[in-house]
Design brief:
The chain is built from 6 helices and 7 strands, in the order E-E-H-E-H-H-E-H-E-E-H-E-H. The protein is of the alpha/beta class.
């Protein structure tokens, strides 16, 4: 693990078959348990992972003072800067972008333009925030209806920001694939009665990402 100029870089011992630019969610940093676990699982599947923090989270790391997320235009600019930097410094193998919750949402708003110009191969959203908590009428799906770039969403079936019953009623682009984790919440944690564990769902998410990426490569 390395930290050059704000990056966390993890990669397998052999040259990675692809890179994943991995953005954090609104409330947790790039080294949260979720981010750490998924990164390690992806490295075990021969992917290189680059993590970074949006400006508000980087400021929190430096000062210890909590800040709300930056405005969307700042998040978009920040993520785009990271895409361009990875392309110039690291990504000889295919580059995928994505993130946890908010990070995945930002990636999904950038993937089309970057796919069209050949910078990225697709996007992966882990726990997509289809709507704010308790506000299912305030959908964040407009741009997801017209995507032609390969996009994968991995979602818990009881995610409060978009559960299976809700999401299956949305009009989403054919290029967008949704993979469901049974009884998972927004962090993919299931209830004990389900017979699954959060660790199993994290592994299933990583397996699905690798399988999906293989399809994009073929």
């Amino acid at each position: 693990m390395d930290l050059p100029d704000g990056w966390l870089i993890d990669q397998p011992e052999t040259p990675p078959i692809g890179w994943f630019l991995f953005a954090h969610g609104a409330g947790a940093p790039m080294d949260s348990d979720f981010m750490q676990a998924l990164t390690q699982l992806l490295v075990e599947r021969d992917l290189g992972v680059v993590r970074f923090e949006f400006p508000y989270m980087a400021e929190h790391r430096e000062t210890g003072k909590r800040r709300p997320p930056n405005k969307m235009e700042v998040l978009l600019d920040s993520f785009q800067t990271q895409i361009d930097r990875v392309r110039s410094e690291l990504a000889q193998a295919p580059l995928y972008i994505g993130g946890k919750s908010m990070g995945g949402r930002v990636a999904s708003m950038l993937v089309q333009d970057n796919f069209d110009c050949g910078k990225v191969a697709g996007a992966v959203c882990l726990g997509y925030p289809f709507h704010p908590p308790g506000k299912p009428e305030k959908l964040r799906t407009e741009h997801l209806q017209s995507l032609t770039s390969p996009t994968l969403i991995v979602q818990g079936t009881r995610d409060k920001l978009g559960n299976r019953e809700e999401v299956e009623g949305y009009a989403l682009a054919n290029a967008l694939q949704v993979h469901w984790l049974e009884d998972g919440d927004h962090d993919f944690k299931p209830r004990k009665v389900s017979g699954f564990t959060q660790s199993q769902h994290w592994q299933a998410a990583a397996d699905q990402m690798r399988q999906w990426m293989r399809l994009q490569e073929s």
